[in-house]
């Protein structure tokens, strides 16, 4: 994982939920504060954008008032947590199919 924002997201969740079993969530602002404590507000849009990308890959879940948001239509106060197996499967199923690099005759 080379992206420092991704790393900060997963590290912050791991600190909040060390056993990874109870579905604890964190606010995107908590992650931004880890990355830039003095000017965390500037990092917040980047944290949210990275979280959205991770959600679309099935690696993260974004919730609002405890319910999973639609990644294409949400705004407001959200929280980040690790996805359940069902949420990961649904996210991966929604991805467009990968083009095959090799052509078969």
TrEMBL record:
Pfam families listed in its UniProt record: DUF3253 (PF11625)
InterPro entries: DUF3253, WH-like_DNA-bd_sf, WH_DNA-bd_sf
Organism superkingdom: Bacteria
Protein name, entry field: DUF3253 domain-containing protein
Naturally occurring in which organism (per UniProt): Brevundimonas staleyi
């Amino acid at each position: 994982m080379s992206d420092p924002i991704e790393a900060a997201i997963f590290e912050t969740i791991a600190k909040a939920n060390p056993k990874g079993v109870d579905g604890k969530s964190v606010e995107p602002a908590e992650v931004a504060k880890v990355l830039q404590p003095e000017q965390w507000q500037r990092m917040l849009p980047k944290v949210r954008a990275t979280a959205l990308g991770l959600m679309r890959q099935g690696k993260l879940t974004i919730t609002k008032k405890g319910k999973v948001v639609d990644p294409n239509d949400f705004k407001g106060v959200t929280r980040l947590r690790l996805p359940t197996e069902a949420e990961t499967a649904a996210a991966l199923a929604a991805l467009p199919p990968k083009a095959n690099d090799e052509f078969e005759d």
